[in-house]
Design a protein that fits this description.
340 residues, alpha/beta, 11-stranded parallel sheet, 3-stranded parallel sheet, 21% strand, F-box domain-containing protein, LRR_dom_sf
Length: 340
């Protein structure tokens, strides 16, 4: 450890420092002495980083981000960091943030990112009024007040029930500004609400969710025109939604995994109605029966295709066919990356 500590002395221009699990108080002290330009500090999971480190962190006056999740730092001392660091832009905490935000003596207008668990959405509205990026984990309470946040462009939700947290109510307002929406292990996710309310959405990621999609959608909705990236992984209940995929007339990136209905016949029908003509990335992993038929279909009908995969998981493509296709791409000098 001593040689490492000594080397910190020469890092006078260091801007970022990431040392998860193994960081110590001694390292923080050395950083405070020799790295005055440090802007990002992440020591997540380092149990030897404790309350005694705060006074040294406060010497790093240019810090924008301090990730001390799962360290020995108390919530009270973390609150002190948020209040006393003049340029802090991120709130990242592994436990509930309610107590921290409740006891803040003022709002934090410089904060643009929040990553944590919270019960009272009103606290985010009051204390972090300019937040742009929200990563919300293990929610169990009504979050409809999130709609009062007017600057959120990226929303990521993990491990909750859409019904319990009233996500649909929040999206009525949030959808006006959201450009990225990610959902992970969300129950009863209403795809209809995303389509109708998220009008300027650029990226949609749906991962391991149970979903609802019941209404017939209008292909002229702004959502369908604006979405550029769609990633669907191991979800339930998306069959009806998949019948609308050709509505995404400007889609560039399409990734899907674990959906049995995605087979040769599905993509033949999709391309037959002129779907996916703008796609540049087409990655299908462990889905239904896919063969060379889909490979030929996509490469012949998607003129901008630059990335194609993951054909190693396609049950209808033999190893010999895969090699033949790769040789064809190579011999014809095609600008196409093929993922196994």
């Amino acid at each position: 450890m001593q040689p490492f500590l000594e080397r910190i002395q020469i890092l006078t221009n260091l801007r970022e420092f990431h040392f998860h699990i193994g960081c110590t108080r001694e390292i923080i002290i050395e950083l405070s002495k020799y790295c005055p330009l440090l802007k990002r500090l992440s020591v997540e999971g380092s149990v030897l980083v404790d309350d005694m480190c705060v006074k040294y962190m406060l010497k790093l006056r240019l810090l924008r981000s301090v990730n001390v999740s799962n360290t020995s730092l108390s919530s009270g001392r973390y609150r002190a960091l948020l209040l006393l660091l003049p340029h802090v832009q991120e709130v990242i905490w592994s436990g509930s943030v309610d107590v921290i935000l409740t006891n803040l003596s003022r709002s934090l207008p410089s904060v643009t990112k929040f990553d944590g668990t919270i019960s009272d959405a009103g606290l985010l509205v009051d204390k972090l009024p300019n937040v742009k990026q929200l990563l919300l984990r293990s929610l169990t309470h009504d979050m409809s007040d999130l709609g009062e946040l007017r600057n959120v462009t990226c929303l990521s939700i993990w491990n909750c029930s859409s019904t319990v947290i009233s996500l649909s109510d929040a999206l009525i307002s949030l959808g006006e500004t959201l450009s990225v929406l990610e959902t992970h292990e969300v129950e009863d996710l209403n795809i209809d609400d995303i389509i109708f309310y998220c009008t300027v959405l650029n990226e949609l990621h749906v991962n391991s969710c149970s979903t609802l999609c019941t209404r017939v959608s209008d292909c002229k909705l702004a959502h369908f025109r604006n979405l550029k990236k769609l990633k669907l992984r191991y979800n339930r209940g998306l069959s009806n939604f998949c019948s609308f995929l050709h509505f995404y007339v400007n889609l560039k990136v399409f990734h899907v995994a674990g959906m049995s209905q995605m087979n040769d016949a599905f993509f033949a029908e999709l391309v037959g109605v002129r779907g996916f003509r703008t796609v540049t990335e087409f990655v299908v992993d462990h889905c239904g029966y896919l063969s060379m038929r889909t490979i030929n279909l996509m490469t012949n009908n998607c003129p901008n295709l630059a990335k194609f995969g993951n054909i190693g998981s396609w049950p209808g493509v033999t190893k010999e066919e895969e090699v033949t296709f790769l040789n064809f791409v190579r011999n014809n000098n095609l600008a196409l990356t093929v993922c196994h």
